[in-house]
Specification:
This protein is an alpha/beta fold. Helices cover 35% and strands 18% of the residues. The protein has a nine-stranded mixed β-sheet with strand order 1-2-3-5-4-6-7-8-9, with helices on both faces. β1 and β2 form a beta hairpin. The protein is globular.
Length: 327
């Protein structure tokens, strides 16, 4: 991740970071045409890059799809969201840094990796942004894409969602807003409030770092859309969903070093970001506890806001996700 460019606004705001193929500005007029797959490129025996013509997004959107090494029939689907922005818009962070292809090779699940635009929060923006373009990610991910994935990759209609950093907030938000679609959710190092001053400042700083205007996403500071997308406020909607959440303390852990400027950047900036994520995660845990909604929280690790820890968390979260998917 490009820490200096993206994460510094968080440190200044004393909050945390979070996600990701930019789509050009398109007409905001509603479109009735159905989404369709226009191309599928084979990258390996288990990896495809799928190009979807999305009426909601107003153009072609690419997603990568992992399938099992051995086809054992109809299977569920896990959607995995990346962080604030893909450094390579054609290859998911989860493949380049997260070991997803190797981890899922022997598991009977489709894994969908959206290649999202920077600072999108995987949500439907109210208006096209002059810099970031048209973002209608929630409609794309929850309405347009699932039936295409199921029809093309033998999906059985059962879904879960996971994400890291900004994608962690987005995954939880989508699970809250679509409990009938996702049976499970896993979030790694995320922040989950959007309507309080700190949560809104956090989100606005991320979008501004990419040159976007958060008012185009959910409106001005008092717009009800900020509350409507707040996972802490709306946590009751997680009842019945399998939930796994992990975060570090922010203190240097086994994967940190001080042997270069880049390493120091990870320790200092990544450490402060993870401190913010830790605070946010405790708030969600407290809220679910008040509501008596069961969830698994892992607060046990030290370490910063960085990939080695998310690689370790993926297998730890898998039992929760697998159970929710009927595996």
């Amino acid at each position: 991740m490009r820490r200096r460019r993206i994460f510094i606004p968080f440190v200044v705001a004393a909050v945390l970071s979070m996600s990701t193929t930019s789509i050009g500005v398109a007409s905001a007029d509603p479109v009735e045409a159905a989404a369709r797959i226009v191309d599928t490129a084979i990258a390996s025996d288990t990896l495809r890059t799928v190009s979807v013509d999305s009426p909601a997004m107003g153009g072609i959107v690419q997603v990568q799809v992992l399938t099992p090494a051995v086809d054992t029939g109809s299977r569920p689907t896990l959607y995995m969201l990346s962080g604030i922005g893909e450094e390579d818009p054609h290859n998911s962070m989860w493949l380049r840094k997260g070991g997803a292809a190797e981890f899922f090779a022997d598991k009977n699940v489709n894994v969908v990796l959206p290649l999202a635009g920077p600072g999108s929060f995987y949500t439907d923006w109210q208006r096209d942004d002059p810099t970031l373009g048209r973002y209608k990610w929630e409609t794309f991910l929850t309405q347009e894409l699932p039936p295409l994935i199921d029809a093309t990759f033998d999906g059985n209609g059962r879904n879960a969602i996971a994400g890291l950093s900004m994608g962690a907030q987005s995954a939880m938000m989508l699970a809250v807003r679509h409990p009938d679609l996702y049976s499970g959710v896993a979030s790694y190092s995320g922040c989950f409030s959007s309507s309080d001053p700190m949560g809104q400042a956090n989100i606005r700083s991320i979008i501004a770092a990419f040159g976007g205007n958060a008012d185009n996403m959910w409106g001005g500071p008092l717009d009800p859309d900020w509350v409507a997308h707040d996972s802490v406020v709306n946590a009751e909607r997680l009842r019945g969903t399998a939930v796994y959440v992990s975060v570090g303390t922010g203190a240097p852990g086994p994967h940190e070093s001080f042997d270069s400027a880049a390493a120091l950047d990870i320790v200092v900036v990544g450490g402060l970001i993870e401190v913010g994520a830790n605070y946010c995660t405790h708030r969600l845990a407290e809220r679910l506890g008040q509501l008596n909604i069961p969830a698994t929280f892992d607060f046990t690790r030290t370490g910063t806001h960085s990939w080695p820890y998310w690689v370790e968390q993926l297998p730890k979260s898998w039992p929760t996700l697998a159970g929710s998917l009927g595996l």
